[in-house]
Amino acid sequence: MARGPGKAFCKGIALVELIRSCPDDEAAKQWFVDMRWPDGVCCPKCGCDRIQCGGAHKSQDYRCRDCRRWFSVKTETVMQGSNLGYRTWLVAIYLMSASLKGVVSMKLHRDLGITQKSAWHLAHRIRECWDEDGEIPFIGPVEADETRVDGKRGNMSKAKRKELAGLAGKRLRYRDLIGDNGLSSGARTA
Questions:
Q1: Distance CA 123, CA 118 (A)
Q2: Cα–Cα distance, 181 to 136 (Å, whole number)
Q3: For residue 2, is it within any domain?
């Protein structure tokens, strides 16, 4: 009986294959173009597909014939305004995606050969695009087993001690831990 791959098996591309497939910035740029516009380049501002390739601008590769704006693959993405090359971005995205526990900026700094400050900004931009839109963390009941969340009793006011004594043994909600004034009216729990 054949068994499927275990949890350790992860289908994907190896770092060596990525480096081999994108040996320079032009190949990495073409990969980003193919991923962003699989049906052909179109203007990010107006959506027009009448595009002029190449031109006088060094950092802008395309020009829309309708709205006459210059743009590149980086325009209106997390890469916008970055002086880092396409290959650097591609390897950084790979390293951060393939890591189980995340990648710190010092590791990116060493692996990519860029400054730590650039690596920090790069990592934050990549994490920003992974962020779930509009999702507020900790909505609903939060359970904490065998965890002290009230602080030292000696530092509390008598009213706070009395309030916490009434909550002893009850299932606490996030609102109970931070108080009603800590949440906006739209984010209150039931």
A1: 9
A2: 16
A3: no
